[in-house]
Specification:
251 residues, alpha/beta, Purple Acid Phosphatase, chain A, domain 2, six-stranded mixed sheet, five-stranded mixed sheet, 6 helices, 13 strands, binds fe (ii) ion
Length: 251
């Protein structure tokens, strides 16, 4: 199973450079010699100053790959849920109509999407009810599990994300995943606009590059978070037997 992973498209048709970046990432995905079974899109699909998902879904559908989305802090839950129902109705939905929390069992591993959107909050929120639901869905699965959640839930060592954008739910989430480290194979994230990798116990937590713009690595405090000129990219997570190998692909 080859799982392709893109993130943080921040789609807005007025941003021409961003459009070129998004298209170059998707073209690279389409041209890969190994065939993707699935495309993960880990949030911030549109930028918050834009509200029509149709054009970006058309770009994603043009890859001819099934894709799974989650909300980022720029995607209002209700807007993304409505857009998926209208423009990509085969996308899985959960029981909670106000949250894009879902399970996808179409593949040899179970994929669980978690909706961390909270209004005006970069760090988002996952409620205790959602964590209870997550634990139930991991525990009942007889297949290995991949979790999709927008925010990188561990400390990054980067000033902005650790001080402005890391919310208390992350520690509860990490403790839960640690209890199921034998079953969870990957936590796939975005949000950092950088490729970062760490672990919850033995579980890799991987933040994908942004397909739009790359963030400065602010190891020390900078006056403002700024864009840096660096190639965009994506990840390929490859399952070989029960091992997962993740490739960072710069475009
Ligand atoms: Fe984000």
């Amino acid at each position: 199973m080859n799982i392709f992973h893109i993130s943080d498209l921040h789609y807005n048709p007025k941003n021409v450079n961003a459009l070129l970046n998004i298209e170059s990432v998707l073209n690279h995905v389409k041209a890969q010699k190994i065939k993707a079974d699935l495309l993960l899109v880990t949030g911030d699909i549109i930028n918050r100053d834009y509200d029509n998902y149709q054009p970006v879904f058309e770009l994603l559908k043009a890859t001819n790959l099934p894709f799974l989305c989650i909300t980022g802090n720029h995607d209002k839950s209700q807007n993304l849920i409505s857009a998926l129902k209208q423009f990509y109705p085969s996308h899985p939905m959960g029981d909670n109509p106000s949250k894009l929390d879902y399970v996808c069992d179409d593949f040899p591993w179970r994929f669980i999407g978690l909706d961390s959107y909270a209004a005006n909050s970069a760090g988002g929120n996952i409620s205790d009810t959602q964590l209870f639901w997550l634990e139930e869905k991991i525990a009942e699965s007889n297949k290995p599990v991949v979790i999709l959640v927008h925010q990188f839930t561990l400390k990054t060592g980067l000033f902005f994300f650790d001080t402005q954008s890391r919310a208390p739910w992350c520690d509860k989430f990490n403790a839960l995943v640690s209890r199921y480290a034998d079953k969870v194979k990957l936590v796939a994230c975005g949000h950092l606009h950088n490729a970062l990798i760490s672990h919850i116990s033995s579980v890799p937590v991987i933040s994908c590059f942004s397909a739009n713009w790359q963030a400065y690595l602010d190891f020390e405090k900078v006056p403002e978070m700024k864009e840096i000129s660096r190639p965009v990219g994506y990840f390929i997570h490859r399952r070989i037997d029960d091992q997962l190998i993740s490739y960072a692909v710069a475009v």
